[in-house]
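As promised in the previous annual report, we have extended the structural survey to additional targets. Below is the entry for DUF3046 family protein.
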Amino acid sequence: MRLTDFWENMRETFGEEYASSVAQDQVLPELDGRSVNEALRDTDAKEVWMAVCRAYGDRVPARIRR
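The corresponding C-alpha cell record, generated without further manual editing, is:
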C-alpha cells in the first residue's frame, strides 16, 4: 500500500481534519503502543492500515477494509 493510499483511506474514514488528529493522538496497542504517525516511520503502511481497521471496525467503510 502506498502512503498516499493510506492517507486517502484515513481521510475517507475519519474526515479531512480528524484523520490527522487520529494519526497523531491515537495510540494503538497493536502498534506496540505507538501512534499511527509513529508506526508509519518504520512499519509498512498496509500493516498500519490493517491495525487501524481492526481498532475502528465498522467505522471503516467496508470497501476500503483490505
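Helices lie at 3-14, 16-25, 36-40, 45-56. The mean pLDDT is 95. These points will be discussed at the next consortium meeting with the crystallography subgroup.
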